Every structure is written in structure tokens, then in C-alpha cells.
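Hi C.,

You asked whether I'd gotten around to modeling the 472-residue construct. I have! Everything is below, sequence then structure, no commentary in between.
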Amino acid sequence: MSQRKNRRQFVGQSAAIGAGVWAGTGLQPKLKASPLQSLAAACVGVGGKGGSDTSHIGGQEVAIAGLCDVDKLTLTKKGREFPDAKQYTDYREMIEALGDKVDIFTVSTPDHTHAAAAMMAMNRKKHVYCQKPLTWSIKEARMLRETAAKMGVVTQMGNQGTSENGLRTAVELIQSGGIGEVKEVHVWTNRPIWPQGAGRPAGSDPIPETLDWESWIGPAPMRPYVKDAYHRFNWRGWIDFGTGALGDMACHTTNMPVMALKLWDPTSVTAVANSGIVDNEQFPSTSTLKFEFPEREGLAATDFYWYDGGNLPPDEILEQLPERFQQRIADQKAGKLRRKTSGAVVVGSEGTIFSPDDYGARFDFIRNGEVTKDYKLPEQSIPRIPYEGSNDERQKWEFVKSITGEYKTGTMSNFGYAGRLTETMLVGILALRGGEVGKRYEWDAKNLKCTNDESVNKFVHREYREGWSLEM
């Protein structure tokens, strides 16, 4: 009994870093775990990405004590890997049952249930790993960031590129002035790769006996089950459940420029192109957004452009890219690519950084229209993760070892950082749902509201369905 008490004391006292924006400050837990003080986790969502999240956490010598998934077939499959874990279809029941027996909760569900599950866990002083985007709504991102700071827990969002050495090198290069003053950033994605731009399907189908539809809907408005329309993968395109191409990929593809340039709290967002939302059901099939960022901490005012659904930056940007990539762009325009390109271009006064990698892990330095190797990398100012493995495994190592105190730098994509990243990107949803192409929606980040069009403020948050809550 005394050993268990010490373990609980350790877990409750050892989380000093999860709440702040990562800034190389060296914040660290004060205590370490002894070999006898092993950690236990309960995992919400264990299929698809949640399957690897669960396995990777378990691979860090964390005991998996609970598995939760709305699909009993998925539960049964994952249960074979972790036969000692108790199984649930409702995360509320699992958190209530295991809250005093585990230290960590992972949340790898559709976007609309991230906040409620993560909040419930943090309010019980549990460390939380949550998939991207951190939340479905802007206000939820703010609330999770504030709660993580209040509770002092270790947190991490699943934007795996943050653990890549290449991303950290690119950030250092930009922040050291390697490409000069930056006033323009362009990021595009090959998403959506699921249905978007249509209305709700008619009719309904019988709910499979193996599916807990009530728990899948969660805090969103109830609707009939339609086979293959929402569950399993296509939920990303539906406004009630996902955040579209922007929510799915911006936390990955914008991560490097956002971190390097401190692109927080835009003052406005404009839908330069918007194919339209049908019946307030699915996100547009294509869009282009312009975010405006003011001068901040000595950095120049910056315009950030986002493109999805096959939209691309203007030719004067694309023509700067390496010839090998320009050929891929040409093939994309000709409809010859099976999957469209993605990329990030950071335009400086003395050079350009281009990454064709969703994670910012690989990049080219472009000067005078040519890729150059003739540049000197700055001294490292961002720590590197001392663990070999995939970026996903490295991020889980960073998370777990920050809890035990063995990794003193702390999680880079903690909810302080990830909350701001998610909140910033989701401002773009307001312009998409507002629907007016070319209209500049002015944003008051401090108070989370649009100041020149009250009609879009209802999209900052929503009321939860009865029986589901966002605890504070």
C-alpha cells in the first residue's frame, strides 16, 4: 500500500511542463520515477491512428490498463495485443472506472470528441496525449490550454513532425535570420482525400450491433447512422465531426513556419477561394485562405496563405521551387498524379525555405531561384530527442520521459504550444463557414471573436448535446 501511495504522489507532483508554450526554457519535472514506479495508461480510440498511438505508448514501458473504442470489433482486435486491459465503448465510463489507477490518457478519436475526453482526464490530473488537431473548435483549444496550465500535467499533441530533427533545424535557420526578413508564407496540402462539398445523405441504415453510435456521436448533435458516410474514416469532411482539410493537415504542414515565425493570433482571415458549404454539412471541396499576422516580437507583419483541394500558390512562388518538384506540379495540373502535392514555402528577403514534406522534416534552401548548399547552419538552440525511432515513436518517448523526469527539456508540442497552433489555424474555419469570398473577417484573438461580423461568432464554439460536457 505504501508503495502505491508513493507512486501516486510522484505522478501528481511530477508534471511541471505540460502547460506552457515550448520556448527552450528548460522547464522540467522535479522528480524522477524509480524502476518500481512504472506508469499505466488508458487509451481512448484504439483503431487507425489510435492503434499505433496505443502500441507506441505501450512500447515505452507503460502498462496499458484500459482500451476504449466505440467499435467492439476494433476493441477485440486491440485487446489481443493488450489482453490485461479492461475494455470500454464509452470513454466517460473508462475515466470514471480507471481514473485512480492510471497516470496517462491518450485520445485518438474523431476531432469532435478530443476536447471533452482530454478535459475529463486533465481534471483528474492525468497526463494527456491527444491527436491533432487538438480540438474541434477554437474555444475548446483555449480551454484545454488553460486547463493544462492550471492542472500542471504533462501534455502532447500528435503533430509528429515536431520530433523531427529536420524541422528543428529549419526553425533554427529561419530564427537565426538565415533567409532574412519573412513577410510571406505559402502552405498547401493534398487533402481532402475524403468526401467534401456535399450535403447530408438521405435516409438511415441499421446501426451495427458492434457500434456504440451514441458514444461515437458524443457531444455533437445526434443524427441517423448511414453506412460508410461518417464512421470510420469519412468523418473529417463533416462539419459536426471534423475540421476539414485545414484541421486535418495544418497542424502538420504549418508547424515549421508557425514555430519559426511565432504565427499566433491572426488579426484577420479571408477566404480568397471557397467552393462553398452545402446545407451546413460538409466543408468546401476546395479553398484558399489568407491569414494576416501583425508585427510581433521584432518580426515583420506576415501574410500566410493556405491552399487545399488542389489549389496551389501563384506561379511566381512555384517557379522558385526545385525543377524536380516543378515537374510534379506540372503533372498535378495535368491530372497525372495519383495524389496531389503538398508543400510549405517560407519567403525571406535573402532566401527561401521550401519543404515538400508534410512534417517539415526535409527542406531546400533556395537563393536567387536556385537550390543552394552554400549556407551555414546556425548553432543548435533547440534540443534534439535522444531516441532512435520513427517520428511517432520519438514523440511518444518525449512524452513519457517528460512525465518520469528523465527528459528534462519537456514536450515540445505541449498543449500550451499545440493549443495556440490549433486555435490559430481554426480561425480559418470562420471564413469558410461565413461563406463570403474576399471578405476580410477581423479577429480579436484575446476575446475569441470576430469584430466586424457577429454572425460567425457562433462558430467559435457550440453547445454540447445533453449528457456530454466540457468539464472545467
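If it helps when you're writing up: Confidence is low (pLDDT under 50) at residues 1-36.

Thanks,
B.
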